[in-house]
Amino acid sequence: MDIEEVREYALTMPRVTEDLPFGPDVLTFRIGEKIFMAIGLDSEEPKITIKLEPDFAEELREHYDGVKPAFHWNKKHWSDIYLDHIDDELVKEWIKRSYDLVYSKLSRKIKETL
What is the 3-state secondary structure (H, E, C) of 22-61? Predict the structure, then answer.
């Protein structure tokens, strides 16, 4: 997948918004105002940053060379996924997992407004 395919996939999920809160080089994707994924637009190698459960993130880092602790993000919860090193279906699965994780943590009040 390239970053445009990742972007298009993320926008197929319900109530996802995108913005550039950190400047023109980092595109973020949110559900209920909470970020679940970011794309570094100026990266030398195409990558995304996603939020995952700490144990699952650690497991992925041990098994895949294309999964690293996220640079400039909380490394316990956020991982960089290098798109050229990971199968497209796994990338989609992990993006959806990140979306679901962040959605599950939203308050009932926020969920009702979505």
Answer: CCCCEEEEEECCEEEEEEECCCCCCEEEEECCHHHHHHHH
Q: How far apart are CA 100 and CA 79, in angstroms?
A: 16
Token duo for residue 29: 């994707």
Res 72: pLDDT: 84
- Spatial distance between the Cα atoms of 81 and 84, rounded to a whole number of angstroms: 9
Helix axes 3-10 and 88-105, enclosed angle (nearest 10)? 40
pTM for the structure as a whole:
0.94
Per the CB < 8 A criterion, the answer to whether 80 and 68 are in contact is: yes
Task: Compute how many other C-beta atoms are within 10 angstroms of the C-beta atom of residue 46.
Answer: 19
